[in-house]
Amino acid sequence: QVQLVESGGGLVQPGGSLRLSCIPSGSIFSINSMGWYRRTPGSRRDMVARIFSDREPAYSESVKGRFTISKDNANHTLYLQMDKLEPDDTAIYYCNLVCQPNSGSPYYDYWGRGTQVTVSA
Q1: Could you give phi then psi for residue 116, rounded to 5 degrees?
Q2: pLDDT tens, position by position, for the chain (121 residues)?
Q3: Separation CA 80–CA 63 (nearest Å)
Q4: Exposed, middle or buried by CB within 10 Å (0-12, 13-18, 19+), for 35?
Q5: Torsion of CA 23, 26, 27, 30, to 10 degrees
């Protein structure tokens, strides 16, 4: 069973920075992509950034130029460097992984439990 654990959230003032981490565990044979999503109360979970094995990362328009997604290929740890944070960035941030847990298995979608990011003066 693949599990994802996010960390790095917290309270930060507008203009500040945070770095989120997502550490996967369990059996992972092949990764298609990993990403960060966020959700505010009453809204759906929206993509923030996504990193692929065969193309450039993708970002939502609202975070382009401020957030950077990266991945440690040695242990599959996913990061999200968030700079110039704004109050509208306040949300629960979730890590996502699309992978084959074993050779020959289908690709599955996995989610972490989320980490709270609050941007407030």
Answers
A1: -80, 130
A2: 899 999 999 999 999 999 999 999 999 999 999 999 999 988 999 999 999 988 999 999 999 999 999 999 899 999 999 999 999 999 999 999 999 999 999 999 999 999 999 999 9
A3: 11
A4: buried
A5: -20
Q: How many residues does the chain have?
A: 121
Q: What are phi and psi of 89, to 5 degrees?
A: -80, -5
Q: Which amino acid, one-letter code, is at 96?
A: N
Q: Determine the distance from the C-alpha atom of residue 68 to the mean position of all C-alpha atoms in its chain, rounded to a whole number.
A: 10
- 31's CB contacts (< 8 A; 6+ apart) are 53, 76, 97, 98, 99
Residues 6+ apart with CB under 8 A from 21: 6, 7, 8, 77, 78, 79
Reading the block at residue 119, the tokens are 């941007």
